[in-house]
Amino acid sequence: MSLYARQLNINDLERSLAVETAAFPPAEAATREKVIEYRLTVCPEICIGLFLRAGASLPSPIPQDIPFIEESASSGDVLLAHVISTKTTNKPVKDEDMDYPRNWKEDPKGDYAVGHRKNGRTIALHALAVAPDYQRAGLGKAIMRVYIERTKSLNAADLISILTYDRLVPYYQRLGFEHYGKSESEYAGVAWHDLVSDIKSGKTNSNWAKVLHTIFFCVRNPYNSDVRRAV
Predict the structure, then answer these.
(1) Is the dihedral angle over the CA atoms 187, 193, 194, 195 positive or is it negative?
(2) By the 8 A CB rule, do 116 and 192 touch?
């Protein structure tokens, strides 16, 4: 198959940074050290990329059964999209979850007060980015489908936590997300709201296709005021 997903690692730093900075405005794009280098070093197991094999054309429609492989991509394969996350012991995402320890390089696997918490059971989904040349093709839905299924198969987490604008809160509630109210996060000066999905119980599984459509819409419209974004 021309499309495949795999776990990202630090060798994907430049490609992942290129996708991130192209997909989002400067105020929202992840910085090199904070989001890309740090997270691909300390928790690559919950960061994945969607790749197109070298010389292949993007299939249409996007297949539902994109394989997850373990081997590294060849240098010519194209990173189309990524999901970058950390774990947290919180349910709603908080500012300390979006931050990173400035001295993390001294002990990348250390336990710090901010950033990735390796014993957490909540995925703090920080970045879903699709390269602009490949937007409007369904890749946002595709990578999230793979991501959720892999998270469940590895028993990597019980919850997925997101931040969203107030206008989208009722929509996510109808899809089974629990609203925790206005977020404590003040990132980018936005009045964020906390929502959490229980992926372990499976109670929202039947609605994930609709959730993925909304996420994809936000990704392919990065300058739209409805973008749900957290770094």
Answers:
(1) negative
(2) no
Question: Whole-model pTM?
Answer: 0.84
Start-to-end CA distance of the chain, whole Å, equals 32
Count up the domains in the chain and report the number.
Answer: 1
Residue 229 lies in a domain: no
- The pLDDT of residue 204: 54
**CATH number of the CATH domain containing 131:** 3.40.630.30
The helix or strand, by DSSP H or E, that contains position 51, with its residue range, turns out to be strand 48-52
Distances (CA, A) of 97 to 29, 55, 117, 180, 221: 16, 39, 8, 16, 25
Which secondary-structure segment (H or E) carries 122? Answer: strand 122-130
The phi and psi torsions of 178 (rounded to 5 degrees) equal: -90, 130
For residue 75, the enclosing domain spans 3-219
In a domain, 230, yes or no: no
- Over residues 175-194, the pLDDT tens digits come to 677 999 999 887 777 788 99
For residue 162, give the nearest of 171, 149, 153 by alpha carbon: 171
